Amino acid sequence: MRVLIVDDEAPARRRLRQLLAAIDDVEVVGEAADGEAALALAEQLKPALLLLDVQMPELDGLAVAASLPDDGPAVVFVTAHDVYALQAFDAQALDYLLKPVAFERLQRALERVRRRAAPRASVPARQLLVPTRQGLQVLPCTDIAWLEAADNYVTLHAGAREYLLRRTLAGLLADLGTGFVRVHRSAAVALAQVASVQPNDKGDALIRLRCGAEVVCSRGYRAALMRRLADGT
């Protein structure tokens, strides 16, 4: 397992390197002291895992995690503060370690990374963990009517509620499976929620959902939408 250590404090980086040296299948491929360097090294070195501090000057760890591609390295946050846990898991972190890091706790985090990397059949997600002011909420995927993307965030429209996830639309659709179809560069709909499709002269269309929402389908996605609706898949 190729690991990149990211922390603005040299003693913290040294501590993690010492712990990882005792684990046979781990190789520390580099260290970064700030977020910009972390992104550059992640692109260059292609690590399997970032051990990532949260509080860093300029570009913090949460911003680094949000900037990684969907097929990028796994992220385990390592911080002295527990107040960022909700934001960390919203950023799709696999684990959240508190300093000073215990060896046994680090080993459990690495085991999660190994399980993530193990080959497995692609199974659509049945539910998502979404952040709210009250904490993490379990959202059944069948409740989602449509998805609206902006940069590295996706708004999930579920009835009268909206939830914001720090994901890309492409990455989220890969998890949700064939029950959703992209209808625009920044939008996707649940096929089961489509009530009608009204084409217009410009080649695009207006999708009306069973919940009452209306979503524009751009010309480039219209044929695929109609084919999916006709096939029922």
TrEMBL record:
Question: What's the source species' lineage?
Answer: Bacteria, Pseudomonadati, Pseudomonadota, Betaproteobacteria, Burkholderiales
- Carrying 4-aspartylphosphate, the residues are D53
The protein's name: Response regulator transcription factor
UniProt source species: Pseudaquabacterium terrae
Q: Which domain of life is it from?
A: Bacteria
Q: In what residue span(s) does the Response regulatory domain sit? A: 2-114
Q: Which InterPro entries match?
A: CheY-like_superfamily, LytR-like, LytTR_DNA-bd_dom, Sig_transdc_resp-reg_receiver
- Which Pfam families does the annotation name? LytTR (PF04397), Response_reg (PF00072)
Keywords for the protein's UniProt record, in alphabetical order: Phosphoprotein
Transferase listed as a keyword: no
| HTH LytTR-type domain span | 128-231
Matching entries from Gene3D superfamilies are given as: 3.40.50.2300, LytTr DNA-binding domain (2.40.50.1020)
